[in-house]
Amino acid sequence: MKRDINAIVPTRTVLEGGGFKVRRPAAMGRLMSPFLLLDEMGPVHYGPGEAVGAPSHPHRGFETVTYLLSGGMKHADSAGNSGDLNPGDVQWMTAGRGVIHSELPQEHMMENGGLMHGFQIWVNLPAKDKMMEPRYQDIPSEDIPEVSNEDGTVWAKVIAGEALGVSAVIDTVIPITCIHLKLEKGASYSHACEQDHNVMLYVFGGSLTVEGRSLHDGSLGLLSPGESVSIIAEDDGAELLILGGPELGEPIARYGPFVMNTRQEIHQAIEDYNNGTLA
């Protein structure tokens, strides 16, 4: 059974972290589970000294995925981990029981300015994994599989899951699909889906159709159940993310950077952070 578009969610522009602009779907409902947040960072062109990021802040109970398309970010955390994110790189951070980290522009972005563009995605963790030990996976672009179809009209970067016969290298706690896809004008692509997963398409360039219904730049399409989705690029081509994962079916208690299952667990996270025992 092929999937079609159940609902189209528009984006709104908001300020996050130290004041960087993100495009964010205006509604985040259960059809997006296990995804808690989808932020397109930019694209924004900074002048010298203008670039901003997210100073030190805590997380508990979920994972943050940062995928950079342009610019340069650096991260550091309370466990002593640090590193750079360059175009095409991915940082898959499992906060688990707690991490305090920062994501800031690299020095060359502060000195010279430039284009900053990328994504941050929050992935919920099942109750049994919410207090697991934190971990970082910093994956450089050259280690993330890229694949094209035979005539070169469809290109995919396989961050998580599988596309065009190629599997991702990133280890995920729950089965996740995260594919960066580009289609030339009129190109088509059929993506196999786990039937019991929620699947969605976020278009950030051009436009496409799914079973005759259009989805344009800056829109999130929530898909109906099914075994596959067929995507056809319109006259301006299409660039998008395919996101998929299982419905966790558990209560969600959410307060800022903490996502747990009960209000009591949220209060404990706040107390741990204030006491310096979160991370």
How would you describe the overall organization of this protein?
The protein has 279 residues and is mostly beta strands. The protein folds into 2 domains: 137 residues, Jelly Rolls (Sandwich); 104 residues, Jelly Rolls, CATH 2.60.120. It contains 2 helices and 23 strands. It has a 15-stranded antiparallel sheet that branches. The protein has a 4-stranded antiparallel sheet with strand order 4-9-6-7. Strands 14-15 form a two-stranded antiparallel sheet. The N and C termini lie far apart (45 Å).
And the CATH topology of the largest domain?
Jelly Rolls
Structural class: mainly beta
CATH superfamily label of the largest domain = Jelly Rolls
Q: How do the helices and strands follow one another from N- to C-terminus?
A: EEEEEEEEEHEEEEEEEEEEEEEEH
Mean pLDDT: 94
Number of alpha- plus pi-helical segments = 2
Question: Under the CATH scheme, which architecture of the largest domain would be assigned?
Answer: Sandwich
Report the span from N to C terminus: 45 Å
Shape: globular
Alpha-carbon Rg, integer: 18 Å
Tell me the fraction of residues in β-strands, as a range.
over 45%
Number of strands: 23
Can you summarize this structure?
This protein is mostly beta strands and about 280 residues long. Helices cover about 5% and strands about 55% of the residues.
Please specify the SSE layout and strand pairing:
Blueprint: E1 5-16, E2 20-25, E3 35-46, E4 54-59, E5 62-70, E6 73-77, E7 82-85, E8 90-94, E9 99-105, H1 107-112, E10 114-124, E11 135-139, E12 146-148, E13 154-160, E14 162-163, E15 166-167, E16 177-183, E17 188-192, E18 197-210, E19 213-216, E20 219-223, E21 228-246, E22 253-255, E23 258-260, H2 263-275
Antiparallel strand pairs: 1-2, 1-20, 2-3, 3-10, 4-9, 5-8, 5-10, 6-7, 6-9, 8-11, 12-13, 13-16, 14-15, 16-21, 17-21, 18-19, 18-20, 18-21, 22-23
